[in-house]
Amino acid sequence: MARAAVEAAREAGDAFSVAVAEDELDDALRLARNSGVDPDAGPEGRGRA
Which domain of life is it from (predicted)? Predict the structure, then answer.
């Protein structure tokens, strides 16, 4: 969802929303990695499509 929020903000051309969404994405990715989760793995561990 965080990646989708970044994309939506970019499409809207809203620089502030892009900055906020990118920060939230960074936080989500860091938390996932710190928890031992590969954020780029799909539901079956094959990576993002």
Answer: Bacteria
